[in-house]
Structures are given as C-alpha cells and as structure tokens.
Amino acid sequence: MSDYSLNIRNEEYPKGNLSSQNILIEYGDYECPYSRLGYRYVQKFLKEEADLKFIFRHFPIKKKHPHAEMCAEAALCAGDQGKFWEMHDLMFADNQNLSRERLEEFAQELDLDRRKFHVDLDSHIFLSWVQQDFRSGVKNGVNDTPTFFMNETKYEGKLAYKELLAFITNHKLS
C-alpha cells in the first residue's frame, strides 16, 4: 500500500524535537546545489527552533543529477546501520563529487559495515523507499528541489533564509 500523504511514516528518520507536532518536511536531492543551501538553512532552524521536527524526503532529479538516486539509497543504507543523518550530513558537506567511490569512502569514515553497505547498495533494497518519497513529492506538487512543507502547507517563496524562517514561524501550531 502506498502512502502519498505528508504524514510521517514509521520507518522515516525524524530529527529535531521528536515530540513536536510542528513538522517541517523537505524534499531534496543530494547533488542539487539549492538543496545544499536548504540543508544549511535547516541546520540553523533546528538549532534556533526548539519546537520543530524535521523529515527529509528523497526527490532525486536524475536528469540533472545522475548520482542522486544512488545517494538517496546510500543514505538509507547508512540509516539501516543507524547512521542516516551522519551520511546525510557528509553528502551535503561535499556534494560536488558524489560518485560511488566517494560514497564508499563515506561508509568507511562512518565505520559502517562496508560489506553490508556495498551489498545493500548494489541490490537496491531501498530503491522502493526512494521511489515512494519521489511519488509522494509529485503527488503533493513538488517539481524541483528543495521543496518545503510546514505542517502540510507548501512553501512557495524563494529560497531565502529569512523568508523560509518566517514561513515556518507563521505555520507553527499553537
């Protein structure tokens, strides 16, 4: 059964205040320079906003970013070993060269079981998750990255810190 809603699925990796009802969802692409900028903004939001839960969803734009889908799978492979956010951070810190070799280096740096990481990535065990995230984005009007939703309301403004912060603040639950 597919769930294309903006509801958080049990298998997702929330970050921030895990008990918060204020949910910021980003649809992003690890190779996208604008998603990298969005990543930087989210890091600041999570430090400044005590009442915010963040979810990252994968929206690889393969025509623009040939490694994006593999990177999304790699993040989930790392997540399966308890290191989703660490892999996420490494990929956004160095998103200019996200080759397979670089992802293997990240896996080593994170002290992942490299054989499991390699086998899981080769067998595409998380591809359906990535595809579900992508379909959820399309169903909810995502057509580029990054795209943000705050409590199920889509952000339609430009990618600018102050404007995005104001949007988050204005759409928080009381």
Q: Would you kindly provide a written description of the structure presented here, covering whatever features stand out?
A:
Helix 2 (68-80) packs antiparallel against helix 3 and helix 2 crosses helix 5 (114-123). This protein has seven helices and five strands; from the N terminus they run ββαβαααααββα. Strands 1-3-2-4-5 form a five-stranded mixed β-sheet. The protein has 174 residues and is of the alpha+beta class. Helices cover 47% and strands 11% of the residues.
Order of helices and strands: EEHEHHHHHEEH
Helical run tally: 7
Average of per-residue pLDDT values: 94
Q: Quickly give the structural class.
A: alpha+beta
**N- and C-termini, Cα separation:** 33 Å
Give the SSE layout.
Blueprint: E1 15-16, E2 23-28, H1 33-48, E3 53-58, H2 68-80, H3 84-93, H4 100-109, H5 114-123, H6 127-139, E4 147-150, E5 153-154, H7 161-170
Parallel strand pairs: 2-3
Antiparallel strand pairs: 1-3, 2-4, 4-5
Helix pairs in contact: 2-3, 2-5
Quickly describe the structure.
This protein has 174 residues and is α+β, with helices and mostly antiparallel strands. It has helices spanning 33-48, 68-80, 84-93, 100-109, 114-123, 127-139, 161-170, and strands at residues 15-16, 23-28, 53-58, 147-150, 153-154. A five-stranded mixed β-sheet has the order 1-3-2-4-5.
List its salient traits.
174 residues, alpha+beta, 5 strands, globular
